[in-house]
Amino acid sequence: MLEIAIQTQKLSRKFGNLTAVDGIDLQVAAGQFFGFLGPNGAGKSTTIKMLTGLLAPTSGAMELLGLDFAAHPVNVKRQIGVVPEGMGLFERLTGAEYLQFVGQMYGLDRATTQRRADELLEFMQLADRPKTLIADYSHGMQKKLALAAAVIHGPRILFLDEPFEGVDALAAGALKALLGRMAERGTTIFLTSHVLEIVERLCSHVAIIHKGRLVAQGSLEELRAGIPGEADSKTTLEQIFLSIVGQDGAERPQLEELSWLM
Question: What is the pTM of this model?
Fold first, then answer.
């Protein structure tokens, strides 16, 4: 039996009359590199916010690391790391000051925090500007710092909401290297991204949410089964995604209707 790191039962979230997440039953095994996909507005970020305690579910239940989140919120949060879509960094601190603050908030002693912060800043190629405020970091530098802060305490589950958005190739390479190391150590990584090529390269399992509902879940090979591809070629994640969410049909914008493109 596989150890389950993340499990939800009928997890839902409503905003007034809008149902953003509609009764999803999600299951992620410990140590998986898991991709969570969906079109814009499908409910991806709302789901991550619920799984990380940033947003309360309207109904349903969720367990992380075998713990009921509602009953043990602090214990769960100590064991997870999060890179949210907006990052939410304290921009009037330097990178080193921010990592020292985050490490101590997670309960690390000062010496351990200092050592890990130094290692992370060096690994992320941020150590050469020790007095630069986060406000003066580039977007890619802020992404790398946000990931460093999310892993400084050695989380058992890492949630990443669009970690590669607006990041150049060099910064993306550093992020992928760190994620690869964590996956090798058995960390469960829960990734949402619109860059399907990255998800296909990194993730072993994926789930697809569409209009708030979970419409597919499994390994890439399981999802490829039954999806037709070109002869002598492997079905890509993009083909799987478009087939499942129906974007190759009526929901795709019709370019022929735009007279100025004719």
Answer: 0.88
**Model pLDDT, residue 249:** 46
3-state secondary structure the chain: CCCEEEEEEEEEEEECCEEEEEEECCEEECCCEEEEECCCCCCHHHHHHHHCCCCCCCEEEEEECCEECCCCHHHHHCCEEEECCCCCCCCCCEHHHHHHHHHHHCCCCHHHHHHHHHHHHHHCCCCCCCCCEHHHCCHHHHHHHHHHHHHCCCCCEEEEECCCCCCCHHHHHHHHHHHHHHHHCCCEEEEECCCHHHHHHHCCEEEEEECCEEEEEEEHHHHHCCCCCCCCCCCCHHHHHHHHHCCCCCCCCCHHHCHHHC
How far is it, in rounded angstroms, from Cα 35 to Cα 160? Answer: 10
Segment 210-245, tens digit of pLDDT:
999 999 999 988 888 866 554 445 788 988 898 888
> In whole angstroms, what is the distance from residue 167 CA to residue 83 CA?
14
pLDDT band at residue 183 using 50, 70 and 90 as cut-offs: confident
Sequence-separated contacts (24+) of 76-80 with Cβ below 8 Å: 77/52, 77/53, 78/106, 78/107, 78/153, 79/155, 79/156, 79/157, 80/52, 80/155, 80/156, 80/157, 80/158, 80/159
